[in-house]
Amino acid sequence: MSLGLVTPQVLNFATPLKLQSGASIADYNLVVETYGQLNAQKSNAILICHALNASHHVAGVSASDPNDLGWWDNMVGPGKPVDTNRFFVIGVNNLGSCFGSTGPMSVNPSTGKPYGATFPVVTVEDWVNAQARVADHFQIQKFAAVMGGSLGGMQAMAWSMMYPNRIGHCIVIASTPKLSAQNIAFNEVARSAILSDPDFHGGDYYAHDVKPRRGLRVARMIGHITYLSDDDMAEKFGRELRRADGDSDEYNFNFDVEFEVESYLRYQGEKFADYFDANTYLLITRALDYFDPAKSFANNLSAAMKNIAAKFLVVSFSTDWRFAPERSREIVKALLDNKLDVTYGEIDAPHGHDAFLLEDPRYHNLVRAYFEQIAQELQS
Predict the structure, then answer these.
(1) Catalytic residue at 320?
(2) Each residue of 272-300: pLDDT tens digit?
(3) Which end of the chain is more exposed for a tag (fewer CB within 10 A), N or C?
(4) Is residue 272 located within the same domain as residue 300?
(5) 246 and 209 co-located in one domain
(6) pTM of the predicted structure, to 2 decimals
């Protein structure tokens, strides 16, 4: 069953938020969507944390665009694994994003111009602190669960460490306790594509009424390759050529689109460049790079997790080479080292990192069963 039409709301926060960089930001907005009803005890709230290019629009159909289906609509809704007949679900667009929350595209009140490249650096921990203020707005003292995939999973982990008394369960899907050097390298190549675009103008492209579309296209193409598995790409595209009937030329000397996979990547790049902001991309990939909770504990993840009180569900996917199952097992080991309650599921799925967004019955049944336990706890 669908949630139907959903409408976001804008929350304004006048009190300055101190960021990890030492900077502060005041009078900022966060866009949120909520689904379901908050119970009288305010105990049935679920926070969904989004990944790089997603937003507050988790589920349902946007009231402003009938073609805009929430990015996790197969997971959240009436009768779905995260059942909005039972839970009050909140989706928050993070600070620095480009979907309505205050970010680089927003006007800096001190200059009257868009922040652009002057928008302060934000981290996963900054987002969690901002989300805690959203919880305060709804008078939620403790989330029944905080849940996220990929970068969203990092935020869920950070919640369990930063606010151990404000989270009952932590659901971490297709995530990692820190990026590998290879992952940071992929992010850097994507950022370099944007920074080297002549239309970037040092991040001040708004004033020039242009957008670094070429850089955004390449950045998205690089990222998208890492989200799919080799088997998935082979099954979808193989080595199929896109040639006009009667075209007998053996080679394409103009370097136009030749293979189906090229066409797919260019389409994804074009679509991304239409809706995403380049400065936001730079900010969010840096937040990914910086996340490393064990760093302050002599690189000991078990020590970093010593104060956690939440129960955990950790899920990985066999063909996810961006955030491989080995990284999820590191999280599980650190939790077990602290004698914490953890459920781990490793799904043998062919879809790579993107599997966390797809409707695999084994994956969804696992999440459904886990949330059934949460619901039973709330009733006891």
Answers:
(1) yes
(2) 999 999 999 999 999 999 999 999 999 99
(3) C
(4) no
(5) yes
(6) 0.94
